[in-house]
Design brief:
The chain is of the alpha/beta class. The chain folds into two domains: 145 residues, Rossmann fold (3-Layer(aba) Sandwich), CATH 3.40.50; 66 residues, Putative phosphatase, domain 2 (DNA polymerase, domain 1), CATH 1.10.150. It contains nine helices and eight strands. Helix 3 crosses helix 4 and helix 7 crosses helix 8. It is globular and about 55 Å long. The model has no long low-confidence stretch (mean pLDDT 93).
Length: 229
């Protein structure tokens, strides 16, 4: 078993580490087009992101007054995943200053993991295509464990997969599942103001909010000091 890192920063993926919405919405609209439905408005559809592919599909259809039965939801979700996987990094980019922040934090002894409600296979594919896999001790998706965000177990089990203890964790996210999971796990959470939350991020009461990743290294040092108190 690997040695526990002194401090572990766990990132959400969609809307936090990377701006994945263009590729997600494009795949969603491909499915809607195949179903004879109008394309989803980009801003509206972006707010559906963060709960996994099936919820994205269900919410997009609900916006058209359509409630999907279980089998239809499964079929459309698989079709969406296929379209998305084919174009997963076509328009996706990292948010500004992500890599610089990680470099600074890594020099200060931080290690990193991913905890996302995206399928693990898709998260791994995206990170591989962006040449980022090697930066993370663990990459855990919404289907990696029995629980997923907003359950705190998703974060704690991601930390276990990375060999970390919960007292040394910092969670970074953009929406309710991230903040609530961190609160459930009892770990500090930094929310980004530029993500995909469909509600004002401050109303979720995260530990702190940043408007850019250039703010993260200094804040991380305050929230999880190099030496535990």
């Amino acid at each position: 078993m690997m040695n526990a890192p002194a401090r572990l920063c766990i990132f959400d993926l969609d809307g936090t580490l990377a701006d994945t919405a263009p590729d997600l919405v494009a795949a969603l609209n491909r499915v809607l087009e195949e179903e004879g439905l109008p394309s989803a408005d980009f801003t509206t559809a972006r707010a559906f992101v963060g709960h996994g592919a099936r919820v994205l599909i269900e919410r997009a259809h609900r916006a058209h007054g359509i409630e999907l039965d279980d089998q239809k939801a499964v079929d459309l979700t698989e079709r969406f995943v296929s379209h998305y996987a084919d174009h997963i990094a076509e328009c996706t980019v990292l948010f500004p200053h992500v890599l610089a922040a990680m470099d600074t934090m890594e020099a200060d002894g931080w290690q990193f993991s991913i905890c996302t409600n995206k399928r693990e296979s898709l998260a791994r594919q995206l990170l591989a295509e962006m040449s980022l896999t090697h930066r993370f001790k663990a990459i855990c998706g919404g289907d990696t464990f029995a629980e997923r965000k907003p359950s705190g177990q998703h974060i704690l089990k991601t930390a276990d997969a990375a060999g970390a203890g919960e007292a040394r964790i910092l969670m970074i996210g953009d929406s309710a599942p991230d903040v609530r999971a961190a609160q459930d796990a009892g770990v500090p959470v930094v929310a980004v103001s530029f993500g995909y939350s469909n509600e004002p991020i401050a109303t979720l009461n995260p530990t702190a909010i940043i408007s850019g990743f250039d703010e993260l290294p200094g804040l991380a040092e305050q929230l999880v000091p190099a030496k535990a108190a």
